[in-house]
Design a protein that fits this description.
By secondary structure, the protein is mainly β. It has helices at 3-21, 94-97, and strands spanning 40-43, 51-54, 58-66, 75-83, 86-90, 116-124, 133-142, 148-160. It is built from two helices and eight strands, in the order αβββββαβββ. It has one domain: Immunoglobulin-like (Sandwich). Strand 4 and strand 5 (86-90) form a beta hairpin. The strands form two sheets. It has a five-stranded mixed beta sheet with strand order 2-8-7-4-5, with no helix packed on it. A three-stranded antiparallel beta sheet has the order 1-3-6, with no helix packed on it. Helix content is 14%, strand content 38%.
Length: 165
């Protein structure tokens, strides 16, 4: 094997291992199939469902989506949790639900149609949250356009108590 072949081989192995380490969280389409899925979702370091949400801590959720129109200035996130067949809205404070103020990688609003950006949602998990399987739904809305849905996804999660180590 030549040095060039060896170099290509190691580069391929390195690239594949990086992809495996950065695998996205699998998500499902929301009930209304007209609502677009995000390009990518990463819930903490979760690569297979259900994802663990740790009581008393914050889950980091990165949501990569595409802007649907020009001059998008007001985007809001809404969260719903479904446990034991009951769906309840999870009230996010204004700072967390403001998509424009939580964009990653130097992105900022206004967004233009087709722009690919990533929103970071810090989801607090209450320490009194019941330890049951929970379906998480996150929806991003265009507040200036009659709350039109920009992206929506569902993910299976389970609330767990952190181990005391």
């Amino acid at each position: 094997m030549s040095i060039n072949q060896l170099c290509v081989y190691f580069c391929l192995i390195f690239a594949m291992s990086c992809n495996l380490a950065r695998a996205d969280t699998p998500v499902r389409q929301c009930a209304n199939e007209k609502n677009p899925l995000p390009l990518m979702v990463q819930i903490d370091d979760c690569n297979e469902l259900p994802c663990d949400l740790w009581k008393g801590l914050e889950s980091k959720i990165a949501i990569q989506f595409v802007a649907t129109r020009n001059s998008m200035r007001q985007l809001t996130a809404r969260v719903h949790l479904t446990s034991l067949g009951v769906t309840i809205p999870f009230e996010l404070d204004a700072k967390r639900s403001d998509v424009c103020n939580n964009l990653l990688h130097g992105a900022y609003c206004p967004l233009d149609a087709g722009e690919d950006v990533t929103y970071r949602l810090m989801l607090p998990v209450a320490s009194n949250q019941p330890e049951v399987p929970t379906r998480l739904q996150v929806t991003l809305h265009d507040a200036e356009k009659a709350d039109q849905v920009v992206a929506c996804f569902l993910a299976d999660t389970r609330v767990r108590k952190p181990s005391s180590s």
